[in-house]
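Morning. Coffee machine broken again, so started the prediction first thing and wrote up yesterday's gels while waiting. Chain of 39 residues, entered below exactly as on the submission form.
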Amino acid sequence: VLIFRKSKAGNELVAIRYSLLLTYSIFVSGTLIAITVVV
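Came back before lunch.
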């Protein structure tokens, strides 16, 4: 199934990967800002 729907699944994986990257970057920047404010 994954082989036949490679393009669609690939696009979904890319979208999930980018959303996770975006969430992670926001979390990291927020943590850095919080640390900077506390220190």
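Residues 6 and 12 are 10 Å apart (CA to CA). Going to sketch it on the whiteboard this afternoon.
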